[in-house]
Amino acid sequence: MPINILMPALSPTMTEGALAKWHVKEGDTVSAGDVLAEIETDKATMEVEAVDEGTLGRIYVAEGTEGVPVNQVIAVLLEEGESADDLPAGAPEGPAAPKAASGDGQAAAASKAETPEPETEKAAGGDGAKATPLAKRIAAQADVDLSRVAGSGPHGRIVKADVEAALSGGAPKAAAAGDGAARDGRIFASPLARKMAQQEGLDLARIAGSGPEGRIVKRDVEAAIEAGTAKKAAPAAAPVVAPAAAGPSARQLADMLGMAYEVQPLSNMRRTIARRLTEAKQQVPHFYLTVDCEIDELLRVRKQINERFTDRKISVNDFVIRAVALALKEVPAANASYDESGILLYEHADVSVAVATPNGLITPIVKQAETKGLAAISEEMKDLAGRARDGKLKPEEYQGGTFSVSNLGMYGVKHFGAIINPPQGCILAVGAGEQRAVVKNGELAAATVMSCTLAVDHRVVDGAVGAQFLAAFKKYVEYPPGMLL
Q1: What is the DSSP string of 67-95?
Q2: Could you check whether the bond before residue 423 is cis, i.e. omega within 30 degrees of 0?
Q3: What per-residue confidence (pLDDT) applies to 128?
Q4: Which of the two residues, 91 and 472, has the higher pLDDT score?
Q5: Which of 23, 348, 415, 458 is flagged as catalytic?
Q6: What residue spans of 316-373 are helical by DSSP H?
Q7: Is-above-0.85 flag for pTM?
Q8: CA dist 46 → 8, 42, 116 (Å)
Q9: Which CATH entry fits the domain spanning 3-174: 2.40.128.120, 2.40.50.100, 3.40.47.10, 2.40.340.10?
Q10: Known active-site residue 458
């Protein structure tokens, strides 16, 4: 049976992608592990590998196509003996796309569990996580319980041959101990039966199971479909709310006034940035705290390090990251995120650092920064920033930070307030160091001063905690040897 290759969900927040490049063409033979295509996600370019062997029968999405929804069929893989002549001209319909995880940047375990495997359209549930997608598909169609099939593949993985052998020997149908149509508020049904019921809008609680110990199986759902029973109740109609009056869009206004312009298409990354920043400003109660740091001593220490150790170049930003990490360990209440279940207090300071790329802003993470010295932070940031600009970061390298830093000082920006990167609770905006008049010991003097503004989610961090964090940060920045303690 042909195997649908789907647009994969390569991150918890991905809802669509761009097919950047095909590495194979129609008629090519592929093996498990072969790179099929390059997919541009909202923040990076990833390779999609084949998880089954076969012949690429048809490509439905051409190179350069943007806005391809997650789980849309992009190509079809044929098994031995199958012909491309039997394939439809248009792409078959794939399963519904998964919902994006809230917070883009915090890959919760539950979100990861909802992300489907990228290659096959059908998958069995239960204990089949260690099965190949093809084995899962065969098991789902035959209503076989994968938890009762022994795997012969690497690391005990269940492969196609294992399921076929189980079927030829009278495979145990989906029925685990204690299964039944409904017990303890749970409804027991095979994965295929659940999928069919969902597609037909049927209520499983209203279907009698004929499988082992009353388990609902495929034939039970088919019988309900034929009888026209077990339909779910229609949801109550939502109240009609008149849309708010809106003015013309930027493009409509420009056309009305005859203004000359050029349209630059939105990349997936730019669309995601626009959506997330709007949500952050609308949903997160921001407040701002600013502190001025004298950095003459930091600049002196930095110069000495770079002159003595010519094989490395430590930047002011490296000092900032180190100071942030140490301040977060000193004031752990600032290293937190808001969640409906409670406030998450993080054990480590995983510092996200804003990096400008041709397609927009991305925030690679220096993980457990409190455990790393200036040299390690410097080398890691050079590597992360370089791969960020090339679109080569892995999702785990830019998702899941606990605190963000945005430094525009190198552009001469004196002071600014940044927008929080949800679900993080804080972001530090770092301005340029500049010569200012200060009072020292009752007399005017010149000092290099850097203004830093902390944006805080007031649901997570109170003003006093934000002030304590800035005091600790200022202490480390103004006396760099303290970072060695």
Answers
A1: EEETT-EEEEEEPTT--GGGS-SSPPP-P
A2: yes
A3: 53
A4: 472
A5: 458
A6: 316-330
A7: no
A8: 10, 11, 16
A9: 2.40.50.100
A10: yes
